């Protein structure tokens, strides 16, 4: 039985049918964390061109299609908005870090 599962919330559909999606089950915290990061990376890229990290984050918080949460024990320290902010800042500073690999 998998120790971790990821549930992702869609900000654009918050409180509506289809606002929550199962994104997989994982045997390790590392695999779950990698998948959650990849979901956020993909969502940020799908927002298209933005003029600043602040604009990208504003769009992500309103229209973000992937806001993953990791459930399982021991708990995995992951906060989708914090990670998205780090990635948005990197995207607009020109020092983009390698993307998490899609799972």
Topology diagram in text:
Elements lengths: L3 E6 L10 E7 L2 H18 L6 H11 L3 E6 L7 H14 L10
Antiparallel strand pairs: 1-2, 1-3
Helix pairs in contact: 1-3, 2-3
Mean pLDDT: 85
Low-confidence stretches: none
Largest sheet strand order? 2-1-3
Secondary structural class: alpha+beta
Tally the beta strands.
3
Please give the radius of gyration in angstroms: 14 Å
What is the strand content? 15-25%
Largest sheet: 3 strands, antiparallel
The helix-strand sequence is EEHHEH
The shape, in one word, is globular
Helix tally? 3
Which percent bin holds the helix content? 40-55%
Taking the alpha carbons of the first and last residues, their distance comes to 19 Å
How would you describe this structure to a colleague?
The longest helix is centred in the middle third of the chain and has 18 residues, at 29-46. The chain has helices at 29-46, 53-63, 80-93, and strands spanning 4-9, 20-26, 67-72. The protein contains three helices and three strands; from the N terminus they run E-E-H-H-E-H. It starts with a strand and ends in a 10-residue tail after the last helix. Helix 2 runs antiparallel to helix 3 (80-93). It has 103 residues and is an alpha+beta fold. The mean pLDDT is 85. It has a three-stranded antiparallel β-sheet, with helices on one face.
